[in-house]
TrEMBL record:
Source organism: Chitinophaga japonensis
Residue spans crossing the bilayer: 25-44
Keyword terms: Membrane, Transmembrane, Transmembrane helix
Protein's recorded name: PH (Pleckstrin Homology) domain-containing protein
Source species, domain of life: Bacteria
Taxonomic lineage: Bacteria, Pseudomonadati, Bacteroidota, Chitinophagia, Chitinophagales
Length: 149
């Protein structure tokens, strides 16, 4: 959240500087950085990551970026592990990111479900409830669940 507020302040400051330096510039050109910053701020504050798991499928949706939920079926999974990770060094931050371990969908925190798929493309989905998730996977996805080492 701090990063978003800083980004918004920098955008507004850039707008003021552009307008002061080039008073003849159109108002739209001068306001563009601030409008971009406000739009980005609103977009990121509305971002929601939803993870649902039943006995046969894993569903996830990162709103407003995914219009519909994504599904990974049990037959597509090689292994599941609840892991701790460093969002900055492993994936370059939060959000939808590509890292060494594949794609990550995170909003906050440093724990997630690492899904190793049989197509060789792993996915990490952040969770704020790692203990409940691990307990569910131990009981319902026993053959595929691997405790973190």
């Amino acid at each position: 959240m701090i990063i978003l507020v800083l980004e918004l302040l920098i955008s507004v400051a850039a707008t003021v500087l552009i307008f002061m330096k080039e008073p003849d510039a159109g108002i739209l050109v001068a306001l563009l950085p601030a409008l971009f910053g406000i739009a980005l701020f609103l977009l990121m504050t509305k971002a929601r990551l939803k993870l649902e798991i039943n006995d046969q499928e894993i569903h996830y949706q990162f709103r407003p970026f995914h219009l519909s939920r994504r599904t990974i079926t049990r037959s597509q999974v090689d292994a599941l592990t609840v892991v701790s990770y460093d969002p900055l060094s492993d994936y370059g931050g939060w959000g939808i990111r590509k890292g060494r371990e594949g794609w990550a969908y995170t909003t906050a925190g440093h724990t997630g479900l690492l899904i190793k798929r049989n197509n060789g493309k792993p996915v990490l989905i952040g969770t704020s409830r790692p203990d409940a998730l691990a307990a569910f996977l131990r009981s319902r996805w026993t053959a595929l669940y691997r405790p973190a080492s």
